[in-house]
Design brief:
mainly alpha; 0% strand
Length: 134
């Protein structure tokens, strides 16, 4: 009997939106991961990049490292700062949209920390269904 109550509670929670989670699109996850890794590599270990093997892209990266490394560093750290702020604000947004399950809030936090607006935008656009009052 307890299993039926638990199952009903889980189903109710799915219906009321307290467990809403939506994964970011795979293409954005791949692109952002690649971009952040590349930006981190150019920022933190520029001497290890095999520029000559990367063709015109390597020439461009070498130009950035040689002439604008300070700005590349700023871009790297500011992008991580934005991801962190988005992730914490995402948890607050979860609460205001009725997503109350701590495990789901944590999933939103991690996804937004790693993928930024690709995740945060999904949370912002989520419209919880209106609660019925009887």
């Amino acid at each position: 009997m307890a299993t039926t109550t638990t199952a009903a509670t889980g189903a109710e929670r799915l219906r009321d939106g307290s467990c809403h989670f939506q994964r970011s699109r795979l293409i954005w996850m791949i692109a952002i991961t690649f971009g952040m890794i590349l930006l981190g590599w150019v920022t933190l270990w520029p001497s290890t990049i095999p520029y000559s093997y990367l063709g015109i892209f390597g020439t461009f990266l070498n130009y950035l490292v040689e002439n604008h490394h300070k700005w590349v560093c700023y871009g790297f750290w500011v992008s991580w700062l934005i991801h962190v702020v988005e992730a914490f604000y995402g948890v607050k947004l979860c609460q205001s949209k009725g997503i109350t399950d701590p495990a789901i809030q944590f999933q939103w936090f991690i996804q937004t920390l790693l993928f930024g607006y690709a995740s945060f935008g999904l949370l912002v656009s989520y419209k919880p269904s209106a609660k019925k009052h009887y």
